[in-house]
Task: inverse folding
């Protein structure tokens, strides 16, 4: 009986070890974004030969697909490293990767997806299991001097965990499909690290539900602490920092939500003045998700970012308040009792 239990226990441990190892080293998503980071590393070396200072972009895949560093350099002469990865890795992991590229005199562009800052209350360090595994095995060492966070022992134990269902699906999927993962390193990653995606799956913009979205239009506890810590770290290390709202496929009315969020963020760091407030209602400029721009959408977003950086164009709190009021909301995102423009379409200030 004792021998049987020992054999059973050893079998379980071996199985868990296999799942964790497979999930960490052979996960196609982590491998893809790992190569994206490798290409960003090489792009950094390229632009630093001719430029003393640079911009570094932090965020999820909306930024990795939405901003083309080579186009930005060619059209505007602006050197930028796209250090964005995947929002599912967690905002802290997205931040860690970007910080490791920065030097004194550089500028950090924070483009973390609003959902990672507002509607979901994450634990403070926000290291997802998947994100921490990626950070450990596909990025800079965790003891890099630039790191904002210090993972605890509990964080490291996540490396030992594995998602058996995910591993099983990835082992079986090739039997039923020719495509294990819909993104390819050869087809979807450029030399500058830009993630070029041109699927044609999107048909319409997400509807705007003000009753659901507007109450979530402010930073939650984690989002406020994260952005404050980023700002303070940048100040200590001689780095400028700004926020940029990443583009998303939503109805135009959703701009009120992003205006309210931008107003909140502007109390911590400057917010680049994208007249669209991150909203693009045209499904023809998106690829496979509401956050992934195709080549046309990415070109437009990159050119707009170049203009904002050249002109150092930021939203003022007065502009954002005026925009909210004109759309029937106060500065907290709550509906006004008597909207100033009731029945009259408002325009951007």
Result:
């Amino acid at each position: 009986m004792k021998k049987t239990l020992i054999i059973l226990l050893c079998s379980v441990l071996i199985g868990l070890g296999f799942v964790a190892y497979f999930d960490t080293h052979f996960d196609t998503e982590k491998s893809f974004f790992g190569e994206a980071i490798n290409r960003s590393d090489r792009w950094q070396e390229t632009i630093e030969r001719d430029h003393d200072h640079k911009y570094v972009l932090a965020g999820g895949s909306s930024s990795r697909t939405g901003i083309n560093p080579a186009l930005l350099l060619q059209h505007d002469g602006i050197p930028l490293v796209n250090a964005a990865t995947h929002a599912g890795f967690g905002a802290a992991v997205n931040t860690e990767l970007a910080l490791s590229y920065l030097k004194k005199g550089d500028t950090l562009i924070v483009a973390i997806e609003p959902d990672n800052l507002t509607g979901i209350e994450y634990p403070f360090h926000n290291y997802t299991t998947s994100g921490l595994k990626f950070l450990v095995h596909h990025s800079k060492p965790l003891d890099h001097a630039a790191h904002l966070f210090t993972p605890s022992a509990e964080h490291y134990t996540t490396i030992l965990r594995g998602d058996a269902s995910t591993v099983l699906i990835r082992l079986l999927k090739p039997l039923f499909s020719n495509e294990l993962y819909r993104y390819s390193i050869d087809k979807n990653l450029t030399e500058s690290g830009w993630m070029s995606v041109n699927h044609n799956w999107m048909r319409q913009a997400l509807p705007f539900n003000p009753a659901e979205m507007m109450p979530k239009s402010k930073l939650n506890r984690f989002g406020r602490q994260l952005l404050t810590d980023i700002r303070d770290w940048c100040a200590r290390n001689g780095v400028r920092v700004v926020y940029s709202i990443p583009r998303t496929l939503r109805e135009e009315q959703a701009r009120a939500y992003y205006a309210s969020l931008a107003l909140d963020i502007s109390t911590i760091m400057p917010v680049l003045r994208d007249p669209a407030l991150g909203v693009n209602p045209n499904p023809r400029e998106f690829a496979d998700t509401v956050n992934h721009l195709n080549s046309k959408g990415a070109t437009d977003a990159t050119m707009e970012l170049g203009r904002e950086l050249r002109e150092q164009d930021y939203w003022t709190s007065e502009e954002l308040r005026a925009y909210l009021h004109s759309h029937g909301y106060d500065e907290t995102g709550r509906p006004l009792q008597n909207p100033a423009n009731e029945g009259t379409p408002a325009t951007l200030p």
The first strand starts at residue 55 and ends at 59.
